[in-house]
Write a structure and sequence with these properties.
Layout lengths: L11 H4 L25 H4 L2 H7 L4 E4 L4 E3 H17 L8 E5 L4 H12 L3 E5 L5 H11 L3 E5 L3 H6 L6 E5 L5 H7 L15 E8 L5 E7 H16 L6 E4 L6 H14 L2 E3 L6 H10 L4 E4 L1 H6 L14 E4 L6 H11 L4 E5 L6 E4 L12 E2 L4 E5 L12 E6 L12 H4 E2 L2 E10 L5 E6 L3 E4 L2 E4 H8 L5 E11 L3 E10 L7 H14 L8 E4 L13 H6 L4
Parallel strand pairs: 1-10, 3-4, 3-5, 5-6, 9-10, 9-11, 11-12, 12-13, 24-25
Antiparallel strand pairs: 1-2, 7-8, 13-14, 14-15, 16-17, 17-19, 18-19, 19-20, 21-22, 23-24
Length: about 525
């Protein structure tokens, strides 16, 4: 395998790609996936729409504002000029983005890519320790941060990283961009230059950085979006996943802009607030987790959802009962799907009459999937095994030995247990590891344990996911307290608040069980399966 000559002056990303022999097999069956050698995805997502429809087409919406495609390109050009001329960005530099879903964050994302940089988007919920780990792994020297979320980035104490604020109208980046020219000639990156570093937590809590090329960004739009979602230029997209999640990046930026549609970006919303905005802005395509679809059912009759034609669910298994109840209430068939940060977006799904409620679907055009046993041999239809996938995108970890765990014999091994039926539909059974998937978030139990064990009242702890009707899985902590500490609601709240302050708040244990001891083997190894089997242990 040979890569095109890179446009990156800072060669960190290409230097840290895994060896070619550890890559998955790349499948490029569809003619539309044959991209030119020189490609900047940020250019391809903006300029063709403006050339075809003019600059005045609505592009990015917020609850209070609308940016046209032309306004976004002008803003992107100004930021890109500021990045290069004032902040010294050279192609290949990694730039950390920190902020909620809004047009300013998207403009920063586009500007970094057009300037040839590598985007590292992070969630506003992340705390200092988590940001420090990301910054050190990616060797970040520049961060663009919403003015409201600077504190934890400052506390991260990353040596050599400059933080530049945006979003208040008077942030440093705002002022630099205001003085810059709106015209910027995009860097002619290679199609296989790294565009994104997307971080995902492993079961040990140690994050992994997945590396995605410029061509990969377009490939997810030209597979799942084009063949399953099938959006139109008149669609209005919205959803709740952060843009730091590749599920959100695809659904709220890449897919709508690829076809000239618009996206309503929401910084934070409860299910009620989300669906109120869906009704108000006549949203037609929505991305969110099953939790939101379940939560809104009692209010569906009150809302005008007549424009809503596409609902996508991913991040956790979609229960058949939720699909049926939502379909009965709205007439909309939720599109279920499974994706992975390693694969960038959804690779198994189904829409319309192809949906089998309770099934994830079939391989998206452009992808192949099978179910393997522990030896890597395909199992018979109807038997449980490990899900394995190939396609135009695949796992490339940044300098990480776990590459050989995720990629085996050319297949991406997702860590999910599945059954394929005789019609070729795939049915989710369980996660193959200790990852907790709750309300669409991936939460590594050991990471929560690592935060909880630092509390002075905690002697031992174990964190597992237990089944929950509302959240799919409930983050549950089993805690052995130090002598003299009283069990009860006050201690539970104190431990929960402590965890929220140490790591992203959504990871906190929503249920705390106080126990005298944790189940262990004779050699002292923790038996997590006993906790999952018996929540009252």
């Amino acid at each position: 395998m040979q890569l095109s000559p890179s446009a990156h002056v800072d060669t960190f990303a290409r230097d840290h790609l895994p060896p070619f022999e550890l890559w998955p097999e790349m499948v490029v069956d569809l003619p539309e996936l044959h991209y030119p050698d020189r490609l900047n995805c940020a250019t391809e997502l903006l300029d063709p729409v403006i050339e075809a429809h003019g600059p005045d087409r609505p592009c990015l919406l917020s609850p209070t504002a609308t940016w046209t495609y032309g306004e976004l390109r002008d803003r992107v050009g100004r930021i890109a000029n500021a990045l290069v001329d004032d902040l010294g960005l050279v192609p290949g530099n990694r730039v950390l983005l920190r902020g909620p879903n809004n047009p300013d964050l998207v403009a920063c994302w586009f500007a970094v890519l057009r300037a040839g940089g590598v985007v590292v988007t992070t969630m506003p919920l992340l705390r200092a320790g988590e940001l420090r780990t990301i910054g050190e792994m990616a060797e970040i020297s520049l961060a663009l941060c919403d003015t409201r979320f600077v504190d934890d980035l400052t506390k991260a104490g990353l040596d050599g990283m400059r933080t530049v604020t945006y979003g208040s109208g008077d942030g440093e980046l705002d002022n630099l961009a205001a003085a810059a020219d709106a015209t910027f000639e995009p860097v002619e990156t290679a199609a296989d230059d790294v565009a994104l570093l997307a971080f995902t937590s492993g079961t040990t809590g140690q994050p992994k950085a997945t590396m995605h090329f410029h061509r990969d960004v377009l490939a997810i739009a030209d597979t799942f979006s084009a063949h399953v979602l099938r959006p139109t230029p008149d669609d209005v997209f919205t959803g709740t996943p952060p843009l730091a999640f590749t599920f959100g990046l695809g659904g709220l930026v890449i897919f709508p802009l690829r076809v000239g549609a618009s996206a309503l970006l929401i910084e934070k919303a409860t299910p009620d607030e989300l669906f109120d905005l869906v009704a108000k802005h006549h949203v037609s395509v929505m991305f969110t987790a099953p939790t939101a679809y379940r939560a809104i059912l009692p209010r569906v009759s009150e809302l005008d959802l007549s424009a809503l034609r596409r609902c996508v669910s991913a991040g956790e298994a979609l229960p058949k009962a939720t699909w049926e109840a939502f379909h009965e209430a709205t007439g909309v068939r939720i599109i279920d799907g499974i994706g992975a940060t390693e694969m960038l977006h959804i690779f198994i799904s189904a829409a319309d009459d192809d949906i089998r409620p309770g099934s994830t679907g079939k391989p998206v055009p452009g992808f192949r999937a099978t179910v393997l046993d522990d030896d890597g041999t395909p199992v018979a239809d109807g038997e449980v095994g490990r899900l394995a996938v190939k396609g135009p995108v695949g796992c490339r970890y940044l300098a990480d030995d776990r590459q050989q765990v995720y990629v085996q014999n050319g297949w991406n091994i997702t860590g999910d247990s599945y059954v394929r039926d005789s019609e070729g539909y795939f049915w989710f059974q369980a996660r193959s590891d200790d990852m907790i998937i709750s309300s669409g978030y991936n939460i590594a139990g050991p990471e929560v344990e690592g935060a909880l064990i630092t509390h002075p009242d905690v002697l031992e702890c174990a964190v597992v996911g237990v089944p929950d009707a509302e959240r799919s899985m409930l983050v549950t902590a089993y805690v052995v307290l130090r002598d003299g500490v009283e069990r009860g609601d006050a201690t539970t709240r104190a431990l929960q608040d402590f965890v929220k302050a140490e790591i992203a708040p959504y990871k906190y244990p929503r249920r705390v069980v106080f126990v005298d001891e944790l189940p262990r083997t004779n050699t002292g190894k923790l038996q997590r399966f006993r906790l999952r089997e018996d929540p009252t242990t």
